[in-house]
């Protein structure tokens, strides 16, 4: 009986020690993991939705169940909201695939599915997407890419056809507010430019 108690106590100590050494995911890692999981979970639905979008002449769609579909068209560098356009096949596809809301934007030769935005430890506003297509001139994501560039973009493959795509910009508004992390990052990113 005493041996079982000691063995159980040792097991508990081992488990608690192991938990102390585990680190939680950073916000960037959580966002990337969520994108990967969602794409793998609903690959068929996302493919159907982007196929339906590709069959239109429009460049952007946003919809939440119960709301009107927003349709956008690229004109010069802006995506303009079109008021009098109906594209029922986009909503029908989303409903058939059980997608309750989405935001899609045509980008290069593929489609971005908007997922999340966060601020990196280097004071960059990061836009995180799933991208269906291939981005030939976009480097692979790594911590070094973020640490070396105030502004940039990168990708990480999910499947042969889908990528996690991130685009970031230095958060000058946070710098102007005196955010200490932003002040430190600004001196590193921009010291040679000032």
TrEMBL record:
It comes from the Bacteria. This is Lipoprotein.
């Amino acid at each position: 009986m005493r041996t079982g108690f000691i063995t159980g106590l040792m097991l508990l100590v081992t488990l608690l020690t192991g938990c102390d050494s585990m680190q939680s995911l950073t916000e960037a890692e959580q966002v990337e993991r969520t994108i990967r999981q969602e794409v793998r979970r609903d690959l068929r639905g996302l493919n159907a939705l982007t196929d339906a979008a590709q069959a239109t002449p429009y460049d952007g769609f946003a919809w939440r169940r119960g709301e009107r579909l927003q349709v956008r068209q690229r004109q010069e560098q802006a995506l303009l909201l079109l008021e009098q356009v109906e594209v029922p096949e986009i909503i029908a596809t989303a409903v058939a695939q059980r997608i309750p809301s989405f935001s899609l934007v045509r980008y290069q030769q593929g489609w971005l599915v908007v997922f999340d935005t966060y601020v990196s430890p280097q004071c960059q506003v990061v836009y995180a997407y799933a991208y269906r297509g291939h981005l030939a001139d976009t480097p692979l994501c790594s911590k070094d890419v973020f640490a070396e560039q105030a502004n940039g973009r990168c990708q990480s493959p999910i499947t042969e056809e889908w990528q996690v795509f991130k685009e970031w910009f230095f958060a000058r508004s946070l710098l102007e507010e005196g955010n200490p992390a932003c002040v430190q990052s600004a001196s590193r990113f921009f010291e040679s430019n000032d």
